[in-house]
Design brief:
single chain; mainly alpha; Arc Repressor Mutant, subunit A; 62% helix; WH_DNA-bd_sf; Metal_resp_DNA-bind_regulator; Tscrpt_reg_PadR_N; Helix-turn-helix transcriptional regulator
């Protein structure tokens, strides 16, 4: 998605980005810049002004926790919480069910 996100699509895109973030945080610590590059590899070009507020809201919701670097130049590390893992497990199940329904061949 190289063009700007249509405001009408933004709500759904935000959910997709958050699920992607949770998925990677479940695999290990993530960093903002790395996450921007990871999302870009999938066609989602987010600016820091978009990504960092998402990470902040996810932290406020209790899905992520963060640890600042030792100095101002060191990056902030984000980790998934127990609540984030629980949410991701539920979402995986729901997404699989939706995927199966969307890809089911109609006869």
């Amino acid at each position: 998605m190289t063009e700007p996100v249509d405001p009408a699509d933004r709500e759904i895109r935000l959910a997709i980005w958050k699920i992607h973030i949770l998925h990677h945080a479940a695999e290990g610590p993530i960093y903002g810049l790395w996450m921007m590059h990871e999302l870009a590899e999938h066609g989602h070009r987010l600016s820091p002004g978009t990504l960092y507020p998402i990470l902040s809201r996810m932290e406020k919701n209790g899905w992520l926790t963060s640890v600042p670097g030792q100095s101002r130049r060191e990056r902030r590390e984000y980790r998934i919480t127990k609540a984030g893992r629980s949410l991701l497990a539920r979402l995986r199940s729901e997404i699989k069910e939706l995927h199966d329904e969307l890809t089911e061949e109609k006869t």
